[in-house]
Design goal:
The chain has 468 residues and is of the alpha/beta class. It contains 14 helices and 16 strands.
Length: 468
């Protein structure tokens, strides 16, 4: 799945997922045990499932999420997006945080103000990881990197410092993006507008993504900018979407820094194609009134409202934590107009030294996210602490090849297994997509899982563990 020209459009780095956010603990056939709930994410690429799963927790639930990614660059970006998600409402309003999050999440170029926020977050994360190198503990109660190897944490620090202080002559993101598009389309480049429209109308729209508007999709395919929610210049390179890829050139290995992620399917898939608020799905003259950007804003804002309800500030721990539950969806009570009417709020930055000394982040009661080494999946069954531990396991399409029969040993009784399918990998033929789904079912059954009757979405295959 990760090699060859047929999936060149999906890229070799998974910056976002190819399916919408799911509550990984909300399965009809899964028995939720008492005590701590454990979820394993393999190659999710972004925190959409983590945030969505948190919204389904009750006040008494405790959740431990374990994350495995295939590169430290993706781990760094996961940490960045979680860091932005945990910023306190006192530091940044929920509406503002929603906009900044989506900019960093899906734009190759961001506003100058967003770039400054990214740099401050990188500085805090760099200091936090550095502290774990000396004390082998984690600086934030929700984000734990202490189980990563020392060389992996060193690599994280290097990445964060690169984001904080980019090269004096940065690569032109527009040129880098255009080079990828040219390579992908080849002789079709001069008629690329028609190619973009075909992918949208004949593929994404046919697969249930009608809310993705032509204007926004074509703009993203041309420039890599998916979310423009405020007037401003989107001219600063989003460093979190740049990574290094090694090529063979005349017998030598050459490392090239550029954009090596998805240029075909779009970041709208994670938060922008599903909503429980039916008003956002209304049509006029058979055209959707709202867009995938509108739905992304509403969904992400709802997730952040839930985090704010559950969390308390690490800098003001005497403030009582609200006790209301987030187990019910908030999509239906938030309107897109509320977002549009939110006045622009300015970030108040203190001196950089102060910013890196104190984490102005929410402490989510009973929630912890632990990052494991990229090569750790096949080692988990060898350690007693992971045996029959995970109540739910998610695996992305790009990491399915790492699954084997040992999966049964780390799954709890009645555990759910969610595997991302290839429906939104647009470069694949229908035969390849169906063949991938058949292979996924085969792998799951060999691992001791059986398909459920509750296949709620074609984006994922859902299985439960057999107890035979």
């Amino acid at each position: 799945m990760s090699a060859g020209r047929t999936v060149e459009g999906a890229g070799c780095v998974t910056w976002w997922g190819f399916g919408p956010a799911r509550d990984l603990l909300n399965s009809e056939n899964m028995v939720r045990s008492d005590g701590e709930l454990n979820v394993l994410l393999v190659g999710s690429g972004d925190p959409r499932h983590i945030l969505k799963t948190i919204t389904g927790l009750t006040d008494s639930d405790t959740l431990h999420v374990w994350v495995i990614e295939n590169s430290m660059e993706v781990v760094a970006r996961q940490l960045l997006l979680l860091h932005l998600s945990l910023l306190t409402p006192e530091y940044m309003s929920l509406h503002k945080k929603t906009e900044v999050f989506l900019e960093v999440f899906g734009n190759s170029e961001i506003r100058k103000e967003t770039e400054e926020t990214l740099k401050h977050a990188a500085a805090q994360l760099s200091l936090s990881i550095t502290n774990t190198l000396s004390s082998d503990s984690h600086a934030h109660p929700c984000l734990d990197t202490s189980l990563l190897k020392f060389k992996e944490r060193d690599e994280l620090v290097r990445i964060f410092k690169l984001w904080e202080r980019p090269p004096s002559v940065p690569a032109s993101v527009r040129k880098v993006w255009d080079a990828r598009v040219r390579q992908h389309l080849g002789t079709r480049y001069d008629s690329r507008q028609g190619c973009f429209d075909w992918d949208l109308s004949m593929k994404l729209h046919q697969r249930g993504c009608g809310v993705i508007s032509k204007h926004q999709f074509v703009k993203w395919r041309e420039s890599g900018v998916a979310f423009e929610m405020r007037e401003g210049l989107y001219q600063s390179a989003n460093q979190s979407l740049l990574s290094t890829r090694v090529f063979n050139h005349r017998g030598n290995q050459v490392a090239v820094r550029g954009y090596w992620g998805d240029i075909v399917s779009s970041p709208y898939l994670s938060f922008g194609i599903e909503t429980e608020n039916k008003d956002l799905l209304k049509k006029h003259n058979n055209q959707h009134v709202k867009t995938a950007q509108d739905i992304s804003e509403v969904n992400v804002l709802a997730l952040f409202e839930c985090l704010a309800t559950r969390g308390s500030s690490l800098l003001n721990e005497d403030v009582p934590n609200p006790s209301s539950s987030c187990s019910q969806s908030t999509d239906s009570v938030i309107t897109e107009e509320e977002i549009q009417n939110d006045p622009p709020s300015s970030l108040t930055h203190s001196e950089p030294e102060q910013q890196t000394q104190a984490l102005d982040l929410l402490d989510l009661s009973g929630v912890k996210v632990t990052f494991l080494s990229p090569d750790s999946l096949n080692k988990l069954p060898l350690k007693n602490k992971y045996r029959n531990l995970f109540n739910s396991i998610f695996c992305s399409a790009s990491m399915v090849h790492q699954l084997d029969s040992s999966l049964r040993e780390i799954a709890a009784p009645d555990a759910a297994l969610l595997i991302e399918l290839a429906n939104f990998l647009l470069d694949l033929s229908k035969e390849q997509v169906s063949g991938f789904a058949a292979r996924v079912k085969e792998i799951a059954e060999e691992s001791g899982f059986t398909a459920t009757h509750d296949q709620s979405s074609d984006a994922y295959a859902v299985f439960t563990r057999r107890n035979d």
